[in-house]
Amino acid sequence: MLRNIERSADSAGRKAASESVSGQAREPGTERTRRLRTWVWLPALLILVLVLGACSKSSVTSTNADDGPGENTVPWDYRIQEGSVGDLIGSDMTVLPDNELLPNDNNYATGQQVWTLQSMSATLTTDEQGRNDVQLSGWTTLKSYPDEAAAKTDLENLKVSVTTDVDVVGVYKTEYNGETRNFAVLELPSGNRMKQPIDTSRYDKLKDVKTVSVVLEEVHDFADYDLAYAKFRGWAK
């Protein structure tokens, strides 16, 4: 009798082990552990997906008032100035008449005529009411040239004139003391909106269109050419 009981117990044990190995039976504790691990890892995976998605999107700087208040610094203008070499200080030099200190990369001599490239940036601030404020910096000397032609070559690459189509946000009229003025609001490729006075003839042309062809001046950053600011320079047609 005892042997029969032992055989039954042994047979039952082998059957349970076989079912466990083959995946046909799971202990309740193991199933709960598996589910718990799934719930622990799921939030972490969701966070990882969101982070990777955010990293894959390129950031675009916009000065559109619709984006809310904010501040952006953009390249604004460049100019060429004629001067002469003043004092030589180690590997540097001063450039007259402003006595600006620059590297003497071209081994200039005192009194030698030089041309310099100067830049100006702008800080664009949009307030809570969507109004734009522009603060211009002073001129900063970037580079020296032995002749004017070399300086103009760099200037032409930094300030590029292009003709393109831009969105017409709308046109409107104002009246003050019996005088009527017409304005067009355009959205430039940089994302900012600008207001331009127009005559009655252009008002009639723009009031029913979505886009218009204009001439823009792209001002590129000297240190990062891909950073540019588009400025309105006139109507293409």
Low-confidence region ranges: 1-28, 38-67
How many β-strand stretches? 11
Instruction: Provide the structure class.
Output: alpha+beta
Separation, N- and C-terminal Cα atoms:
110 Å
In which range does the helix fraction lie?
Answer: 25-40%
Assembly state of the chains shown: single chain
Estimate the mean pLDDT confidence: 79
Largest sheet: 6 strands, antiparallel
List the secondary-structure elements in sequence, H or E: HHEEEEEEHEEEHEE
What spatial form do the alpha-carbon principal axes imply? Answer: elongated
Can you tell me about this structure?
- The chain is of the alpha+beta class.
- 29% of the residues lie in helices and 44% in strands.
